[in-house]
Amino acid sequence: MTYASTNPYTGDVLKTFPNASDNEVAQAIADAHAAFLSWKKTPFSARAEIMHAAASLLRKEVDTYAKTLTLEMGKLFAEAKAEVELSANIFEYYAQHAEALLAPEKLPVGNPAEGKAMLVHDPLGVLLAIEPWNFPYYQIARIIAPQLSAGNTMLLKHASNVPQSAAAFEQLMRDAGLPAGAFKNLYATRSQVELILNDSRVRGVALTGSEEAGAIIAAQAGKALKKSTMELGGADAFVVLADADLEKTVKWAVFGRHWNGGQVCVSSKRMIIVDEIYDRFLERYTVGVAGLRAGDPFDAETTLAPLSSQGAADDLKDKIRRAAAHGAKATEVGPKVPNRGAFVQPTILTDVSEENPARYWEFFGPVSMLFRAKDEEDALRIANDSPFGLGGSVFTSDVKHGAEVAEKISTGMVFVNHPTMVKADLPFGGIRRSGYGRELLGLGIKEFVNHKLIDVVDIDAEF
Ligand code: NAP
Fold first, then answer.
1. Which residue is catalytic, options 83, 131, 231, 362?
2. Annotation says 83 is catalytic
3. Is pLDDT at 110 greater than 90 in this prediction?
4. Ligand 1 midpoint to CA 158 (Å)
5. Options 3.50.30.80, 3.40.605.10, 3.40.980.10, 3.60.20.20; which CATH number does 3-232+425-456 get?
6. Is residue 232 within 6 Å of ligand 1 at its C-beta?
């Protein structure tokens, strides 16, 4: 594993970074632990000032931060700017709400002999974040904003293809006034990750990434008896009912499947359309996808970004080939994507039978699987027939009924008349092979705190 920035549109290697030395890793753990001992006592108001400062710096230099994202992993510049803003919103959210979210709670005990019981939420210590490249800043913000606000300190092992984004965020937090050692980016090797997890001063790990990496890190954390959260892959169902507004639905389907180059854990990867409108949907969706324009991600006219690397593009093409070899019909759509750059031709997969293993795969790029459902019940059956359970959506003109259908979809997040949305004030996370735990809101900040009971049983004393 080499840490290197390679522009996926030009293929140019922009910068490489040496792996961390073992001494650097040991020092980072020691520094993070030392920082924790004072950071945990720092008042919420002082921590909030730093979160505010990080948000302001991001907003002030939005173009500069966004440029690094587009250069390093190829996302459209407009989407990169939106990611910077989203990250700022997350810092603001915890600046405003962390103290209230972690306020001590009096427990309603039934019997006075049990005393006056209260739950306090203490930080755990040093945590490790392992993050993927698809939203290089947002993924970091999603974990460090809550956990630093809670009083924990953080080490980061970011994806090896976004080292400049990782460095930019470390510098951001320093510039925002975070004490030295409280957040450190490490170009760590896999064995160093294991070493970090086994250090007694490190109290937990949050990973966002693939099922494969999740299974390895969850096992390592389990062996070391460390708390872990796993935000893994997804294959969101996009259920279209007979009464859906077709024009609006198709617009969201094209967006939901292709934003961020189709490389989103909550992309609308499986479109499940009831028989009555399947043919009309397929026809319009094909036209919509064909209208995407692949090209330079800095060009405002471009609507389809390259994938994050040539390797990712090659892997995806291979997956399409294998899905077709198992009997799926793979239809390439739209004008030919440029030869230069890590592009994959938008592809629609139909006739993906129950026996085709591709039915259960995650396609990370511009590949749409379309399923014809007999009726609503059959659509729900297909939606729930997935190893994943991250996001999902239902499209219908009857929003009340949409909410009822949403209740029947077995997943972490369901939206009516919108693809799965990512916001600072909505929770994020899934079930089954999409992982466990939640990020954002009170759910996220409480993942790595000690929910400690303090019970004053001396019932005569005032409390
Ligand atoms: P990945 O290969 O699992 O990488 C994610 C992170 O884990 C990277 O930092 C990677 O480092 C590290 N990693 C991988 N194997 C490791 C190991 N054995 N030991 C220590 N670290 C290890 O995932 P990806 O391909 O970058 O990202 C795409 C996947 O992430 C998709 O499945 C997507 O759905 C999922 N995702 C989920 C969410 C969510 O919130 N649920 C959000 C975004 C993405 P290296 O780069 O050095 O290998």
1. 231
2. no
3. no
4. 9
5. 3.40.605.10
6. yes
